Amino acid sequence: MNETVLKKRKFQMTMLFLGVIVLTYLSAWVTDYGFVSSLEAVPGAMLWMASNLLVNGEALGKLPDIMEKLLETVFMSIAATTIAAALSLFLAIMGSKTTMVNRAFGAVSRFVASLSRNIPVVAWSLILLLSFGQNSVTGFLALFVGTVGFLTRAFIETIDEAALGSVEALRATGATYWQIVSKAVVPQGLPQMVSWVLFMIETNIRSATLVGILTGTGIGYMFDMYYKTMNYEVVALITITIVLAVILIELLSTRIRKVIL
C-alpha cells in the first residue's frame, strides 16, 4: 500500500515538474524570450554597471538631499501602515468568523479587503493620480489602500486561529461583545498582528520607491529625476541608501519579532 502511494506521488511530482518546464518554454516562445541571449547579455550588463554606477564626490554632495527624501519616504510608509492597521483591525473583527456581528458586515469587510488587496499598489497609484495629482497625498493613499487589503486578510486569519476557549468562557460569564474582543480576541492575536504590521512597513518602504516615481514624491521622484538626466553616479548613491535603509528596517523588525513572538 505504501509503495503504491509513493509511486503515485513520484509520478505526480514528475508530471508537475514536466508541466512547469513545458509552461516555461511555452511562455518564452510566446514572449519571444531567449534564454541564451539573456545569459550572453549578463557580462555586458555587469561591465556597464561597474563603469557607470560609481559614486563620486559630486554625488556625495547630494547626500543630504537624498537622506531628506529617504526619511520622507520611510515616514510616509510607516504612517500609511500604522493608520491602515487600525482600520484593518476593525474590518478584521467585523469579518472574522469568531467575532462577526452579522453576515452583512462580514461580507462587506471581506469584499473591501479583497478589492484593495487584489489591485496592485502601482495601479492604485495611477488611479489616485488622476484624482489627487502628483503629491505626497497620492503616494500615501496608494500605500494605505494596498495595506488595508493585506492586513485585513492577515488579521482575519489571525483572529480565526485564536483559541475559542477564552471566548466561550467570557460569553458564559455574560461579557459584552466588545469585552470579549478586547479581553480575549485581541490579546491573543496581538503579537502576530504586530508582526504583520512590521512586515508591511518593510514592504511599503520598498513599494514607496516605485510609488514615488509615479506620484513625484519621496526618494522615488529623486531616483527618477537623476535617472532621466543620466546622472548615474547619483542614481547609484540613491540605490545604496535605499538598500541600506531596507536592510536596517528589516533587522530592527526581525529583532522586534523575536521579542514579541
Automatic annotation (TrEMBL):
TM spans (from-to): 12-30, 74-94, 115-133, 205-223, 235-253
UniProt topology in membrane: Multi-pass membrane protein
Residue span(s) of domain ABC transmembrane type-1: 70-253
One BP annotation, GO: transmembrane transport
Gene Ontology cellular-component terms listed: plasma membrane
Cellular location(s): Cell membrane
Keywords: Cell membrane, Membrane, Transmembrane, Transmembrane helix, Transport
Keyword match Transmembrane: yes
PANTHER family, per the entry: ABC TRANSPORT SYSTEM PERMEASE PROTEIN P69 (PTHR30043:SF1), PHOSPHONATES TRANSPORT SYSTEM PERMEASE PROTEIN (PTHR30043)
Entry's family note: Belongs to the binding-protein-dependent transport system permease family.
Annotated protein name in UniProt: Phosphate-import permease protein phnE
Lineage per the UniProt record: Bacteria, Bacillati, Bacillota, Bacilli, Bacillales
Gene name for this UniProt entry: phnE_2
